[in-house]
Amino acid sequence: MRIVDTLLEYAIFEKASDIHIEPEEKELIVRYRIDGVMRKVMTLPKNSQLGIVARIKVLANLKLDEHRLPQDGRFKIQTPEYQVSFRVSIIPVFDGEKIVMRLLDEKSQILTIEKLGFHKKVVDILERNFKKPHGMILVTGPTGSGKTTTLYSILNVLNKTSVNISTIEDPIEYRMPGINQSQVSPKIGFTFAGGLRAFLRQDPDIIMVGEIRDSETAEIAVHAAMTGHLVLSTLHTNDTVTTIPRLSDMNVPAFLIATTTNCIVAQRLVRKICSDCVTSYKLTPETINDLSRKLDVDSILETLKREKVITEKNIKNLLFYKGKGCKKCNNEGYKGRVGIYEVLEITPEIIDVINESATAEAIYKIAKKQGLLTILEDGFIKAKNGVTTIEEVLRVTKE
Questions:
Q1: Whole-angstrom Cα distance, residue 359 to residue 260?
Q2: HEC letters along 202-247
Q3: Can you tell me the mean pLDDT for 62-73?
Q4: Do β-strands 83-93 and 71-78 pair in parallel, antiparallel, or remain unpaired?
Q5: At residue 399, does pLDDT exceed 70?
Q6: Which of 161, 133, 378 is nearest to 268 (CA)?
Q7: Could you give phi then psi for residue 122, rounded to 5 degrees?
Q8: Phi and psi angles of residue 315, each rounded to the nearest 5 degrees, phi first
Q9: CA distance 394 to 323
Q10: Which tens digits make up the pLDDT trace of 209-248?
Q11: Pair 381, 399: CB distance under 8 Å
């Protein structure tokens, strides 16, 4: 099946994160997700469908004769140039079986915290907090916003022979030497909560839990953080301050959240402007009006001025950037991605507010007074510095 080999090679070459093979009534559609955006790459004849599905099932060690139930598997492709593992999910749909493959580049280097796109001021806050011997560091954001990559980068800094680090993940995305990584397997009852409990008997210093999904995991994570362990984990919330009420919803008492949480990072991924075709422009009056309707432009400009990104607050005179589109970026104007972040440090003032079971708004007000940079503001700083575009920032931050 040359078609499958070509599909996989082309996806690796295009740096796609996912391949979707979707059966329609009369054809087979192939789409790649590149830099977070779906793109149609080819249409194949319907008669190639059975062969393609069978070939992928053989590669991923799945049952060839099962067409009615979802199946999951994985396989790896190794050549001198690359080493990529594919996570395969097959699900029955109306016109056949839909296949989605997630690509994980096993040779990719773990990025340093600076390379991820953290603001200098924020790097200081992070380092101060993950050097504490215990407590929780939480990373939040929607699926596919790079949370795991951020956690691995922090683990990479903490990974020394003098500490014992254990992780429990679903699935293990990067292999890290010197770290004990376990994969959950709900089929046999090995869950995040069960794994966490067992880890506490493994004399760990640092524990990473792939995700806090339920109150049982939340409770054990908080108790681990309280009894002298550093716990890193992720949660699905939109920003930093809503994470605190979310933990309360999982029945974690307010005083425990306040005393065990060191800091919370919220993040999104934006596409970077292609460096080969970047061009500058000024915003039109229509765009400025449109922005003013959606956002508090004055407060964003105030922050940019405070962070010394701009010297004047007149948005009409500011230069922004975009990619014209060239061969190198497939005429998209974008190439690669970078994170935009919001980091909330749990200070004594914020602890007081949490203990009063305050709302997310009350916590936000105090955090802003202490100089919290929101995701949107961090996005605008990167847009002003020519890293990404205003459109990208709005695309990923709209609730």
A1: 18
A2: CCCCEEEECCCCCHHHHHHHHHHHHCCCEEEEEECCCCCCCHHHHH
A3: 95
A4: antiparallel
A5: no
A6: 378
A7: -75, -35
A8: -65, -25
A9: 16
A10: 999 999 999 999 999 999 999 999 999 999 999 999 999 9
A11: no
